[in-house]
Specification:
36% helix; two-stranded antiparallel sheet; 3-stranded antiparallel β-sheet; Arc Repressor Mutant, subunit A; alpha+beta
């Protein structure tokens, strides 16, 4: 003998017949701002021309997010492909050291670094780093030598 009445039976039936919500997985975290490999290559080329040698950790310490770290890694691969970098990693999974083997900043005209099929020498030439390592754009007509005055 069941001790349930018609109201209880109606509640049980309603609960059993109510459609379950479709489970969803949020992908909002996957759609962050796009990171330009070209822009990261400009930053890295500027830094490495100044430092000559740096670890990957040093080159990414200001990255701010995993997509920027990935962008910088891809930029290093592009710069390596162009023959302006050398890598050294004495142990598997050890510290990666990056060495600039391209021309110095004074010889920008001799280095043609390509990312995505287009030269960004002008982008490298038109960026400066301050003492904190931040890259700032310099207007192409900004004559810092005073030669044009």
């Amino acid at each position: 003998m069941l001790a349930i009445g018609p109201e209880d039976l109606a509640r049980i039936a309603a609960a059993a017949l109510t459609p379950k919500p479709v489970p969803t997985v949020s992908v909002a975290h996957l759609h962050g701002a796009a990171v330009s490999v070209r822009d990261q290559a400009v930053i890295l080329a500027t830094r490495l021309r100044r430092l000559h040698v740096a670890t990957f950790r040093t080159l990414t310490e200001d990255a701010g997010s995993p997509p920027v770290v990935i962008g910088r890694f891809l930029a290093l691969l592009e710069l390596y492909r162009e023959g302006v970098l050398a890598f050294q990693q004495p142990a598997s999974l050890g510290e990666l050291t990056v060495r600039w083997i391209g021309r110095d900043q004074d010889n920008d005209d001799d280095v043609e670094v390509l990312v995505g099929g287009s030269s960004f020498d002008e982008d490298v030439a038109n960026h400066d780093e301050d003492a904190n390592g931040d890259v700032a754009a310099v207007a192409p007509d900004d004559d810092r030598t005073g030669a044009g005055r």
